[in-house]
Amino acid sequence: MIRKGTCDDIDKILKITKACAAHMIAKNIFQWNAFYPNKTAFENDINRGEWYILETNSSIIGCITMSTLMDKEYTPISWLTPNKNNIYVHRLAIHPVHQGQGFAQKLMGFAEHYSKKHNYKSIRLDTFSKNIRNQKFYELRGYQKLGDIFFPKQSEYPFHCYELVL
Known about the structure:
Elements: E1 2-4, H1 10-26, H2 39-47, E2 51-56, E3 59-67, E4 86-94, H3 103-117, E5 122-128, H4 132-140, E6 144-149, E7 159-165
Parallel strand pairs: 4-5
Antiparallel strand pairs: 1-2, 2-3, 3-4, 5-7, 6-7
């Protein structure tokens, strides 16, 4: 089941994102760290009504943020659609124990269906340039890689920006 996230979910999700970070670091993918994702980001997502939780068997196993706000870091990217009426996916996380079972696909399918139903023009996101698995995941769903941005608190390496025109 996918539902809106609440403040009561934050501590559980932070445990999941920490487990995801440790899982990626073990594979030399330094995408998430002590700075990101953080409690404040999830609180902001909740306040804007943009945070969704994935539960299975009454247990929280992941989350996704679907925002209408374009981060300033995205400004230099030559997007395929105008910078209005777009959804930005952030903080997609599935606990490592549950990865590889189609749950990330389920969350992205939810985001794509929601975006089409609400007449958004595209879905935009970024993923770490050293995370080849994520890049393949989005490319197989039809997302096009458009350019790179940097988040210095996360990594010296770039993040690739992707867009799916709906």
